[in-house]
Amino acid sequence: MTTQNLLDSLAAEIIEHHVCSELADGATQLVMGDGNPDADIVFIGEAPGKNEDEQGKPFVGASGRFLNEMLAAAGMQRKDVYITNIVKYRPPNNRDPLPGEKREFWPYLMRQLEIIKPKVVITLGRHSGSAFIPELQISRDHGHARKVQYHDSEFLVMPLYHPAAALYNGSMRQVLIDDFLTVPATIAAFETNA
Ligand code: URA
Asked: Which atom of ligand 1 is nearest to the CA of 46?
């Protein structure tokens, strides 16, 4: 079985188990993830928007273009990372995902990470960040990685601002890019201390 096969089975299971069935009823499709399933870096956003719902891929609208720009600044492309969301169906009218929706998807997100086994998980925005780090204060904690334990798994998690917050704010844009540029050194530092 390839990593992609395992992710495809997990997606089938989400559909079969009617996870967030109300959201599923209002959405075009499940947006499982995109990129390299064997990547060292996994980005986790909040939930699909209109473009993502239509195309079946995360971060393909304006936030996605900024994400691509951020990757390019580090000499990377989307095919070098894996991108997903906590909640994998579009909430109606792009409202924020509800706590119960994040809770329902959480065990599937954990299994998705256990399949991919990334070196670092990068959360985008407070919904995703505070799911891993409950006491998160994004203005204080952005760019700082820490180890997070879930059952028998341990993930290195770096919270970043959400690209949508940075879209029209030049200084926040640069903060996001600068934080992202530290990722290789962060991975190396944690590997040395492991
Ligand atoms: N914002 C998100 O959090 N996720 C997407 O997939 C698109 C926009």
From this structure: 3
